[in-house]
Amino acid sequence: MEGSKSFVPTEDQILFTGVPRFAPPAAVDAAVSRSGWEDVFGDASTPPTVLIVDGAEVDRRLLRAMFKTTPYRFLEASRPSEAVALLGREKIDMVMLELMLPEMSGLDLCRKIKSERNTQYIPTLIVTSLHGAEHEVAGLSSGADEFLTRPLHPAVVRARVRAMLRNKATIDSLEEAEAILFALAQTVEQRDRYTGGHCQRLAAYSLSMGLALGLSQPELLALHRGAYLHDIGKIAIPDAILFKNSSLDTSEWSVMRQHPVRGEEICRPMKSLLPVLPVIRSHHERWDGTGYPDGLSGDHIPLLARILQIVDIYDALTTARPYKLAKTHADSLRIIQEETDRGWRDPELVSLFQEISASLCSFAPQPHPEWPEECSTHVSLENMQRELLK
Ligand SMILES: [Fe+2]
User: Fold this and answer.
1) Both 253 and 321 in a single domain?
2) Distance 232 CA to ligand 1 centre (A)
3) b (16+ CB within 10 A) / e for 78-111
4) What is the chain's pLDDT, residue by residue, as a tens digit (390 residues)?
5) How far is the CA of 198 from the centre of ligand 1 (A)?
6) CA of 57 to the centre of ligand 1 (A)
């Protein structure tokens, strides 16, 4: 571990492809109230947009003519560069492309569409005059979802496009569901006015730890999402217990201790959140096996959960609550070390956290009395959040 190295994530590192979309309440309202189209979500209030990429104008016109009676909105590109520009500018629900294109082949364009986060889920249909199994194999291998050869039967093209757009609407609904879940997690946090900004700070602290450990981008993404979602199970805990200002009795504690399992249950149906489930379930385990809900110990506790646990404790200690004042940075580190000596925390991770914690001041919501003034000139929490919201 390098003591002098800064592990504060740069904006580039924070903005790696895949940072979860955070949905403010207004966006959630919009997502909930927005209907989809056709028979998937009801009326076609927002007709899907189909991009046709073909160098021959006559072929583009023929394709459009097949959809005269449908409500679809069509955009056209005669060159891949035009298509890429449209994909970056417009909300495209499906792409139909010819294999023979100027500038780059249809196969390369398809690979590009399928390799970029913003476009990877856009269904792509290759419509080509090139016959032969080798072209179909190459097209599907490039990531295309369907392959049709000319001459085209209009009814078959319409049926294929309709099926692909239906899949796209399902994918869109899953993304919206994910956004709603993140907003729900924010709501859980906002209900407790004493812990404002907790999830955002955890996300920043966790990324710092993850970067220091050289974790992969999927692991960093899981950490980031875990920071927001780890306590989402608290939504199932009665307010009388969650916001009790005095100590919880035995039965209340047993209810409170259900929140990791309830959180896992809430997030489990979402395939994209599978890597986050161990963080949610195991963030209250202890290194010596005395934690909950499973009593895991040592390396059996998922690494990401061990990381989140340490930064979670640090933030809880340095934040004021109704029943306690905020601890100083130094006092908080000392308490975490005491808990580690008692056998509760992963000693190597705690050591790393102590090493890099000086860098974490750049994510503090307010200047901390023990942190030097120049810390406030680093990228602020607000800036980071603004970037994530883009
Ligand atoms: Fe928790």
Assistant:
1) yes
2) 8
3) bbbeebbebbeeeebbbbbbbbebeeebbbebbb
4) 333 344 444 433 333 323 333 333 333 233 323 323 233 323 345 789 999 999 999 999 999 999 998 889 999 999 999 999 999 999 999 999 999 999 899 999 999 999 987 898 899 999 999 999 999 999 999 999 889 999 999 999 999 999 889 878 877 776 677 777 777 777 777 665 455 677 778 888 888 899 899 998 889 888 988 988 999 998 888 888 887 878 889 999 999 999 999 999 999 888 888 999 999 999 999 999 999 999 999 999 999 999 999 999 998 888 876 667 888 889 999 999 999 999 999 999 999 999 888 766 544 444 333 333 322 222 333 333 333 333
5) 12
6) 59
By residue range, what is the domain housing residue 270? Answer: 11-24+192-389
User: Measured in angstroms, how far is the CA atom of residue 221 from the centroid of ligand 1?
Assistant: 19
- Cα of 229 from ligand 1 centre, angstroms: 10
| 145, part of any domain | yes
Antiparallel, parallel or unpaired: β 73-77 and 94-97: unpaired
Which residues keep their CB under 5 angstroms from ion ligand 1?
231
Q: Is residue 19 part of a domain?
A: yes
How many A from CA of 259 to the centre of ligand 1? 7
Q: If you measure from the C-alpha of residue 312 to the centroid of ligand 1, how many angstroms do you get, rounded to a whole number?
A: 8
Instruction: Kindly report the CATH number assigned to the domain that includes residue 257.
Output: 1.10.3210.10
Using the mean position of ligand 1's atoms as its centre, give its distance from the Cα of residue 230 in Å: 6
**Looking at the whole model, is its pTM more than 0.85?**
no
Shared-domain flag, residues 245 and 265? yes
Q: How many domains does the chain contain in total?
A: 2
Token representation of residue 255:
């209810």
Separation of CA 204 and ligand 1 centre (Å): 17
Between CA 257 and CA 235 the distance in angstroms is: 13
Cα(181)–Cα(277) distance, rounded to whole angstroms? 14
Do 144 and 65 reside in the same domain of the chain? Answer: yes
